[in-house]
């Protein structure tokens, strides 16, 4: 019996059959919201609505906003340039852009 098993293993190896199961590694999904990866800063909007995202540059008291699409994930800049980013409110999609439903900040 041992010779039979060894013979089958030898035959399998000679014919290029892989004995161990090979599963393709699935990359982990990106986290929702702001995150840093290596030297870059990203934002991943995990929702079905258009939203405004406020971005805080490093070393600046002035932030700015961008309007992002549902399930958008994008590069914001380097990790040194961007301190944080967060969802502020739902946006209304109008003719290829985003409409702000509140008065502009002064």
Class from helix and strand fractions: mainly beta
Q: Helical percent range? A: 10-25%
Major sheet size, sense and barrel closure: 3 strands, antiparallel
**Helical region count?**
1
Give the ordered list of helices and strands: HEEEEEEEE
Terminal-residue CA separation: 85 Å
**What does the overall shape look like?**
flat
Unreliable runs, pLDDT <50, ≥5 residues?
Answer: none
Q: Average pLDDT value?
A: 78
The largest sheet has its strands arranged as: 1-2-5
Number of strands: 8
Percent strand equals 35-45%
Supply Rg.
Answer: 25 Å
Detailed description of the structure:
With 106 residues, the protein is mostly beta strands. 12% of the residues lie in helices and 41% in strands. It is built from 1 helix and 8 strands, in the order αββββββββ. The chain has one helix at residues 2-14, and strands at residues 33-37, 40-44, 51-57, 64-68, 73-78, 82-90, 92-94, 97-99. Strands 1-2-5 form a 3-stranded antiparallel β-sheet, with no helix packed on it. Strands 4-3-6 form a 3-stranded antiparallel β-sheet, with no helix packed on it. The protein is flat and about 40 Å long. The mean pLDDT is 78.
Summarize this structure as a short list of keywords or feature phrases.
1 helix, three-stranded antiparallel sheet, 106 residues, mainly beta, 8 strands, 41% strand
């Amino acid at each position: 019996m041992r010779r039979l098993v060894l013979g089958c293993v030898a035959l399998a190896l000679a014919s290029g059959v892989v004995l161990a199961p090979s599963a393709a590694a699935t990359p982990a999904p990106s986290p929702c919201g702001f995150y840093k990866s290596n030297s870059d800063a990203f934002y991943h909007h995990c929702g079905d609505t258009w939203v405004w995202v406020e971005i805080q540059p490093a070393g600046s008291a002035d932030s700015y906003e961008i309007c992002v699409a549902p399930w958008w994930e994008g590069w914001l800049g380097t990790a040194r340039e961007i301190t944080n980013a967060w969802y502020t409110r739902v946006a209304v999609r109008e003719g290829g852009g985003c409409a702000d439903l509140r008065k502009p900040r002064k």
